[in-house]
Amino acid sequence: MRSSSARQAMSEALAHSQGTDLPGIRINAIDLGTVDAKAIHKKRDLTQDEMATVLGTSASGYEKWEQGSRQPSGAARTLLRIMEREPEAVLRALLAKRDAVDSDHSVWKAAH
């Protein structure tokens, strides 16, 4: 990519992030809404510490999500939605480097 093309792409990305419409470009946003992290951790029979570890956040940060004083990032909300609906997919992704995946892993016992 030429330098001018890179600059143009960055300018367009910045303009979009600031709410400017870009001619000829259509961006479809997915509204993830809010997620109930506490309900998901109870449904999956996980502790707050286990949930924080799976989500790659601190235990205190995760606790704030449950209390409603903070909202998870878009990426964390997406992962929570997947944990809510397809917990085996999260388990497979997290254990991908292992040779064998134990689908009855105790952390996911409430998945079925």
UniProtKB/TrEMBL annotation:
Keywords assigned: DNA-binding, Transcription, Transcription regulation
Domain annotation HTH cro/C1-type: ranges: 42-90
Stored Gene3D superfamilies: lambda repressor-like DNA-binding domains
Pfam families per the UniProt record, alphabetical: HTH_3
InterPro entries for the chain: Cro/C1-type_HTH, HTH-type_reg/antitoxin, Lambda_DNA-bd_dom_sf
Molecular function terms, GO-annotated: DNA binding
Highest taxon listed in the record's lineage: Bacteria
Protein name, per record: Antitoxin igA-2
Natural source organism: Rhizobium tibeticum
